[in-house]
Design goal:
With 396 residues, the chain is of the alpha/beta class. It is built from seven helices and 28 strands. The chain has four domains: 159 residues, Molybdenum Cofactor Biosythetic Enzyme, Chain A, CATH 3.40.980; 59 residues, Molybdopterin biosynthesis moea protein, domain 2 (Alpha-Beta Complex); 85 residues, Beta Complex (Molybdopterin biosynthesis moeA protein, domain 3), CATH 2.170.190.11; 71 residues, MoeA, C-terminal, domain IV (Beta-clip, Beta Barrel). Bound molecules: ligand LQZAQKY5 and molybdate ion. It catalyses: adenylyl-molybdopterin + molybdate = Mo-molybdopterin + AMP + H(+).
């Protein structure tokens, strides 16, 4: 049995190398950027007028002139006009290029215009006011976005502004989501007394969809040869297998044996954690990744967020930000295991406070509906204090 930290270390050193494909800018939201994006021009690309008003040559104002004849207008979208006489000014619009021969913008609010003459009413005008300087935000060829960024609306705006209508993004690994167990029937079936509907693969699929990842669902009956043959075919056709169930010690828990039979090397089996102790992880001969998550629904769920998601993010170069929350109530847990306690969270004066909602164990997935995530309470301790911070794994 290995610790959570050891298991994490193994999982995160067996990553998927994602290929890059191109998507239309309109479809890029939420995708993971697959190549660096640089500025094709300075940001802003020209000295940009930042307020509607007039532009003039500041020395004239400094030397005492208060009245400036307006000799023209500079609209946004027009090439720069030229101030021909420093005693004059040019009306300028926000977003326009600063007219040549001017170096200061004064807002309409600070002037009075009568008969084409602007009188400056403010004493607070400073040289260079209200000009968004060329290159002040970024220089041409600066790297604006790096691979591994999840594209939010902010990045979409940058991609648009540098002319990237085709966006290179990382492809997600092709995933198989596999359930196993003869007690499981399809969602649209009426189960017999001894049966239940399968729900874990749907939960995994939904968790994946949340980040734009898709998988194909399979179900395996508890028949050893069938499991071996099916896994062989599925392994060949996917980059990652996410299996739920059949990994503990039951007579019909064939998954570890079947995986080894098809050449998947076991790298982790059994982690000193609750839930999810029978967690299994391995890599096939052809480099495919296999997660076999313990079948109890809460265990599957927890292991997906604690191991599969970090693996995916690291594979795609995404920096997963560690989250912490403080324990809302004192808590005790006797076994010498890392305990992922189900918690509901709320924000109290800027602090994320996690209140344990233990529920009825790892089979009680009805409890998950009132829970926001898991708080990771370390092994080697029995009591945990109210107000103490611990890593928090959110699924909302
Ligand atoms: N002798 C031992 N028995 C068990 C141990 C152990 O260490 N020694 N570990 C227990 C723990 S902890 C867990 S977790 C489970 C995990 O077992 P499996 O991975 O083999 O899971 P199954 O037995 O197939 O299923 C467990 C439970 O979950 C239900 N299940 C499975 N798949 C689904 C699904 N897709 N949707 C909904 N529910 C699912 C299944 O019906 C079982 O009730 O083993 C303990 N036993
Ligand atoms: O540890 Mo198991 O994953 O609790 O039911």
């Amino acid at each position: 049995m290995v610790s959570v930290e050891e298991a994490t270390g193994v999982v995160l050193s067996n990553l998927f190398k994602p290929p890059v494909h191109v998507v239309d800018l309109n479809d890029a939201y939420g995708a993971v950027l697959g190549a660096p994006i640089s500025a094709d021009r300075d940001f802003p690309p020209f000295n940009r007028v930042a307020m509607d008003g007039i532009a003039l040559w500041f020395s004239e104002l400094k030397n005492g002139r208060k009245e400036f004849t307006i000799e023209g207008i500079q609209r946004a979208g027009q090439p720069p006009v030229n101030l021909s006489d420093v005693k004059n000014a040019i009306e300028v619009m926000t977003g326009a290029v600063l007219p040549e021969g001017t170096n200061t913008v004064i807002r309409y609010e600070d002037i009075v215009i009568q008969k084409n003459v602007a009188t400056i009413m403010s004493d607070a005008v400073k040289e260079g006011h209200h000009i968004h300087r060329q290159g002040s935000d970024a220089k041409q060829d600066d790297i604006l976005l790096t691979p591994g960024m999840i594209l939010s609306p902010a990045e979409i705006a940058l991609l648009a502004s540098v002319g990237r209508s085709d966006v290179p993004v990382f492809s997600f690994p092709k995933a198989a989501i596999i359930s196993s167990g003869d007690e499981l029937v399809e969602v649209n079936e009426i189960p017999e007394l001894h049966q239940i509907r399968r729900s874990n693969t749907y939960a995994i699929q939904a968790a994946m969809k949340n980040i734009g990842w898709n998988g194909t669902q399979y179900h395996l009956h508890d028949q050893k040869d069938f499991v071996i043959d099916s896994l062989k075919v599925i392994e060949a056709a996917h980059d990652v297998l996410i299996i739920s169930g059949g990994v503990s010690k039951g007579r019909f828990d064939f998954i570890p044996e079947a995986l080894e039979a098809i050449g998947v090397k076991k790298l982790v089996h059994q982690v000193s954690q609750r839930p999810g102790k029978p967690f299994w992880f391995g890599v096939s001969k052809s480099g495919k990744t296999v997660f076999a998550l313990p079948g109890n629904p809460v265990s599957t769920y927890m292991c997906f967020y604690r191991y599969v998601m970090p693996w995916l993010y690291k594979s795609l170069g995404v920096q997963q930000k560690a989250q912490w929350a403080v324990l809302g109530d004192a808590f005790s847990f006797e076994p010498d295991l890392t305990y992922f306690v189900q918690v509901s969270v709320c924000n109290e004066n800027g602090l994320l406070v996690a209140t344990p909602e233990v529920g009825g164990g790892s089979g009680d997935f009805a409890n998950l509906k009132r829970v926001d995530g898991f708080l990771e309470l370390p092994k080697g301790r029995k009591t945990f204090n109210k107000g103490e911070p611990f890593p928090y794994w959110s699924f909302r």
